[in-house]
User: Fold R13L1/DRL21-like LRR repeat region domain-containing protein from Salix suchowensis.
Amino acid sequence: MKKLEISGYRGSKFPDWMLESRLPNLVGISLQSCMNCEHLPPFGKLRFLKHLELTRMDTVKCIGSEMYGDGENPFPSLERLTLGEMMNLEDWETNTMGGREIFTCLHELQIEKCPKLVELPIIPSVKTLTIADCAVTLLSSVVNFTSITSLEIEGFDVLPDGLLQNHTCLQKLDIWEDQKPEVAVKPAK
Assistant:
């Protein structure tokens, strides 16, 4: 199996079959509306995982060592990470890894509607960063992403001073007051 999508799971913890040894070839994972799960499986052990999307997981308060697993190089292939509508997410820990590099291949990071998250970890490999409808203090973390080439900010009334200092690689900047304008798509005939 290469892709796994779980939506609306009501359990308080994920089943054992979601561990790395049972799903070693996963490339994409999407967990949506798993409202009762407080802890995330050790996805960092999945050697081939390239895309991870976590949305509407209201009881998750921290992303930390339980998600990284006990491997030497957590998330060795992860390229895109999306965290959306995680209303109680407060902390994203990376300092517990004892010097191990995390997210070495992560190029695209999207954080949307995580109002309690106030700081992002420094991830030097990120090139595309999207922050939407979060606490304005989260925007201060953008200063640490000096290698980004694309930045999208959405849903903020105020932008912090020095937001774009030291961003010599930035090629594209999009700032939206509210949501992006809807684009009408006409069905093909």
Remarks:
- Confidence is low (pLDDT under 50) at residues 182-189.
- The beta strands are 3-7, 28-32, 51-55, 62-63, 80-84, 91-92, 108-112, 128-132, 150-154, 172-176.
- The chain has one domain: 3-176.
